[in-house]
Write a sequence for this structure.
């Protein structure tokens, strides 16, 4: 990757596995298959990134994000009690704003490829009916980062709902910390505005 300042926190939710999944329907895909499928599409965009604008990368990545992550549950968890107080319209807008910001972040950070290798390690039971898909990122300098994807079964298929880096703080916990002040001061409308503003800024680069 060309961005030397790419932080691990930004990377944890969106690292890639350079393994293509075998043919299967959405209902047949297991937890590891979901992770592999998403990361394979991300890897392809990384390899073509220098020829694509941020908006084009956004458009390429959006279908994979929608198929792999349960964005509504993620932002519901992040917003906590504020979600319960939100109107149906506010919830819909918040989900879309969080989705746009997440995909725009991907499209901005992953702007090239320099031979990174991602290894699928194993699956193991997680808390509250979740399953962990353990992976390892091997960087060009041979240093590694352990990454655990948290997945949960839904009617349509398994979906990623969180990611944990090196057995540390989850991505959702990081987001909760980042958004807590704006939620306290400006509520759900303030967070919607913040997320859409960030997404617009990133996509316009």
């Amino acid at each position: 990757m060309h961005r030397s300042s790419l932080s691990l926190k930004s990377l944890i939710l969106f690292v890639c596995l350079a393994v293509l999944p075998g043919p299967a329907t959405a209902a047949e895909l297991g937890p590891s298959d979901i992770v592999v499928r998403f990361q394979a599409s991300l890897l392809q965009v990384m390899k073509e990134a220098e020829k694509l604008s941020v908006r084009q990368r956004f458009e390429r990545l959006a279908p994979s994000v929608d198929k792999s992550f349960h964005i509504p549950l993620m932002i519901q968890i992040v917003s906590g009690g504020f979600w319960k107080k939100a109107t149906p319209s506010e919830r819909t807008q918040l989900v879309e704003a969080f989705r746009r910001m997440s995909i725009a972040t991907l499209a901005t950070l992953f702007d090239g490829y320099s031979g990174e290798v991602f290894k699928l390690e194993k699956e193991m039971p997680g808390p509250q009916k979740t399953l962990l898909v353990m992976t390892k990122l091997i960087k060009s300098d041979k240093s590694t980062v352990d990454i655990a994807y948290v997945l949960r079964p839904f009617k349509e298929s398994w979906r990623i709902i969180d990611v944990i880096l090196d057995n540390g703080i989850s991505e959702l916990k990081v987001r909760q910390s980042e958004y807590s002040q704006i939620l306290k001061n400006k509520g759900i409308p303030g967070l919607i505005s913040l997320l859409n503003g960030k997404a617009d800024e990133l996509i316009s680069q």
The CA atoms of residues 5 and 109 lie 10 Å apart.
